[in-house]
Amino acid sequence: MLSPGYEEIVKAPKALLHDHLDGGLRPATVIELAAEVGHELPATDATRLGQWFIEAADSGSLERYLETFAHTVAVMQTESALHRVAYECALDLAADGVVYAEVRFAPEQHLDRDLTLHRVVGAVLAGFREGCAAAADAGTPIRIGTLLTAMRHQARSMEIAELAVLHRDEGVVGFDIAGAEAGYPPTRHLDAFEYLQRENFHFTIHAGEAFGLPSIWQAIQWCGADRLGHGVRIVDDISGNGQLGRLAAYVRDKRIPLELCPSSNVQTGAAASIAEHPIGLLRDLRFRVTVNTDNRLMSGTSMSREMALLVEAFGYGWSELQWFTVNAMKSAFIPFDERLVLINEVIKPAYSKLLA
């Protein structure tokens, strides 16, 4: 059987759990929105600007990588801009064959022009609703769940957690913390995580990307994370012969999903290359591995491109791509019966034809 080609992968249904709204803007949109608010950009040609984001993020440092967001966040400070970015996000993901996505953003980063947290969330949710409707009309249906993110170096996590729960029936399906890991352990936000657990609400935590096993251990054992945002450094607890340490064994035994982002992990120095990415080992050892984009603009990527890179690096076929997709759908923060519908009525029938 021939390896899956990129164009074929685009048409196959995919599920995405780790995608940042402010990391997925179209370069042309950044330019137009920057002109509206008078924000200076490093380039004003869409192609050149897109390349600048990739090159600036390709430093091997998470801190340097995060600096690129100053430009995207700066142009997302009005309701109309937030609505547009969310709308276009839905269309772009749907056009790439994504049938389910969880897109996250930090409401506290969009208050520079006097918006309230509630208006920020409302604008994004409205953009997603209209974008999903337009995608369905175009014959590429997609469902999007929203995660509200708190910045780990700030002190608003409880406020954002309460905001997420307040909007849980309007499209917000989970909570997250993000930002530089070193020096800002997840336990600083323990009150927010305890509140979310009392409210029976789902949350993931960025952990095990730039910082190692202690970050993962705290996210799981202290904070109770449902999933690990990245979690790639769990490989540090696996010996050369595949022997699992106690933390790695716990993560695998409990089927805690790993939101791996291959291209992004290479950019931030969490992996040396796609071919050397721990996703190959973690998949072989049957961890709950999922494939994600992280920041499509900064990585110049898409779900189809991430899948195609793995096909090239590891020789994967349709069965592995289906496995990654079903893993993601099993790990989604929407109700169980709704996950099953997408798995059994959308994903598996499509891959059955590809595997035939």
UniProtKB/TrEMBL annotation:
Keyword Kinase applies: no
MF annotations from Gene Ontology: adenosine deaminase activity; zinc ion binding
Any one GO biological process: adenosine catabolic process
Assigned EC number: 3.5.4.4
Domain of life: Bacteria
Keyword Disulfide bond among record annotations: no
Source species taxonomy: Bacteria, Bacillati, Actinomycetota, Actinomycetes, Micromonosporales
Binding, Zn(2+): H18, H20, H206, D294
CC annotations in GO: cytosol
Active site: E209
Residues holding substrate: H20, D22, G179
Annotated keywords: Hydrolase, Metal-binding, Nucleotide metabolism, Zinc
Cofactor dependency: Zn(2+)
Domain Adenosine deaminase span(s) in chain numbering: 13-348
Name this protein carries in UniProt: Adenosine deaminase
Site residues by UniProt (Important for catalytic activity): H230
Record's catalysed reaction(s): 2'-deoxyadenosine + H2O + H(+) = 2'-deoxyinosine + NH4(+); adenosine + H2O + H(+) = inosine + NH4(+)
Similarity comment: Belongs to the metallo-dependent hydrolases superfamily. Adenosine and AMP deaminases family. Adenosine deaminase subfamily.
Function: Catalyzes the hydrolytic deamination of adenosine and 2-deoxyadenosine.
Co-factor binding details: Binds 1 zinc ion per subunit.
